[in-house]
């Protein structure tokens, strides 16, 4: 169940429905990868065919970003709400806690990933953190060996986009993992290094506004949202959204 937003596939299922599919993937030994789709990423993909292919060949493309939901409504689509990247990570952590699944955390700085792991373990005591590795390890064979030795069901990769998605694609077959998710700066949030937007911003889909006020330097990135909506409106008028 997917629809295309400016050429990029996006799942229409709710978070709960996606979690049922992902749990089935783990139980049946299937490999799946999750990528968060937001306006910035769609705009990048419109100029980069390799990124477009990378996004569309993923198993699950979750609608992260209020602009994706708005674009869907413009075309009469069925994407009803957002499934944020960090929201999906937390849902996977809850699933792992419930079923004692093993997770591995790869990326960010050493202190950050260690603090994030400690925070996650405290919140989800039944979850098994099988291992962790900071994002500054350059020996990809060592990274693969370390991950495989831990035998995780779920791998969270925090290398930034599109580096994390490229890592997953290039290493998916040789890693003994079921679920792969690129999580961007989520380790920073779990570690307490970066605060997530207050709940009111999360519920209204305006986390981007909170981040912009907190970090004015993000203005260049946030410009992608109005550009995306303008392009989506033009595509709708031309019947090609």
Task: Name the features.
241 residues; 52% helix; alpha/beta; single chain; six-stranded parallel beta sheet
Explain this structure.
The protein has one domain (2-195, 220-237). The chain has helices at 15-27, 39-46, 49-56, 66-74, 85-99, 110-123, 140-150, 163-171, 186-191, 199-204, 207-214, 219-222, 224-237; strands at 2-5, 8-11, 32-37, 60-63, 102-107, 128-133, 154-158, 179-182. Strand 7, helix 8 and strand 8 (179-182) form a beta-alpha-beta unit. Helix 2 (39-46) crosses helix 3 (49-56) and helix 2 (39-46) crosses helix 13 (224-237). With 241 residues, it is an alpha/beta fold. Helices cover 52% and strands 16% of the residues. A 6-stranded parallel β-sheet has the order 4-3-8-7-5-6, sandwiched between helices. A two-stranded antiparallel ribbon has the order 1-2. It starts with a strand and ends with a helix. The chain contains 13 helices and 8 strands. This is N-acetylglucosaminyldiphosphoundecaprenol N-acetyl-beta-D-mannosaminyltransferase. It catalyses: UDP-N-acetyl-alpha-D-mannosamine + N-acetyl-alpha-D-glucosaminyl-di-trans,octa-cis-undecaprenyl diphosphate = N-acetyl-beta-D-mannosaminyl-(1->4)-N-acetyl-alpha-D-glucosaminyl di-trans,octa-cis-undecaprenyl diphosphate + UDP + H(+). InterPro entries: TagA_TarA, WecG_TagA_CpsF. Keywords: Cell wall biogenesis/degradation, Glycosyltransferase, Teichoic acid biosynthesis, Transferase. It is an enzyme of class 2 (transferase).
């Amino acid at each position: 169940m997917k629809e295309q937003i400016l050429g990029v596939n996006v799942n229409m299922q709710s978070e709960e429905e996606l979690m049922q599919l992902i749990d089935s993937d783990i139980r049946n030994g299937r490999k799946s990868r999750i990528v968060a789709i937001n306006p910035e990423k769609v705009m990048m993909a419109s100029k980069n065919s390799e990124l477009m292919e990378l996004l569309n060949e993923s198993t699950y493309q979750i609608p992260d970003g209020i602009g994706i939901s708005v674009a869907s409504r413009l075309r009469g689509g069925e994407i009803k709400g957002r499934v944020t990247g960090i929201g999906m990570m937390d849902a996977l952590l809850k699933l792992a806690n419930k079923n004692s699944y093993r997770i591995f955390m790869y990326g960010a700085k050493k202190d950050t990933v260690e603090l994030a792991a400690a925070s996650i373990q405290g919140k989800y005591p039944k979850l098994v953190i099988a291992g962790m590795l900071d994002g500054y390890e350059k020996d990809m064979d060592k990274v693969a060996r370390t991950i495989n030795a831990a035998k995780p069901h779920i791998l969270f990769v925090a290398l930034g986009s599109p580096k994390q998605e490229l890592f997953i694609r290039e290493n998916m077959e040789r890693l003994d993992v079921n679920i792969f998710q690129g999580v961007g700066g989520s380790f920073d949030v779990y570690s307490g290094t970066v605060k997530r937007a207050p709940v009111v911003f999360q519920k209204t889909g305006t986390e981007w506004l909170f981040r912009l006020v907190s970090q004015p330097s993000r203005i260049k990135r946030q410009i992608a949202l109005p550009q995306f909506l303008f392009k989506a409106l033009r595509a709708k008028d031309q019947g090609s959204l």
